Amino acid sequence: MRKAERHELIRRLVRSQTFERQDQLVSAIEEKAGKKITQATISRDLKEMHLVKVRLKDGGFAYQYSLNDFSIDETRLSRLLKRNIESLAIQDTLVMIKVVPGTGEVIGNLLEAMEFEEVFGVLVNDAKIMLFIKDDFNGQELAVKIRELL
Predict the structure, then answer these.
(1) What is the DSSP letter of 136?
(2) N or C: which end of the chain has fewer CB within 10 A?
């Protein structure tokens, strides 16, 4: 497995699941990739990707992007959505988000930067964001993730 493929798989796994220990992440990667991966390789990958172990509210731990990297976008997106969302509508593989005029492009770009695995594409204007969902997913799955940010 090439490094870029491994990094993409790690990104998807860390966003969708909680891993308290590296060996749990290694097992998940091996299961998805169908190949053996050493813990040393994953340790280097985590460092390169700026993933750190943080304490959760429930006392457990999880790997997340460091504060000076990806999580800033998630925090900013959450804050902007809370302040500016007017409605969220779902129709099969489409999710339409209406926001306060003037915030559509910023919020749309942040949604795109989140690289949700369900999203095929994002189309934005001043006050609306249209998310096109991949065939293997549906709009409900993505709407749940967006609502968790609110």
Answers:
(1) T
(2) C
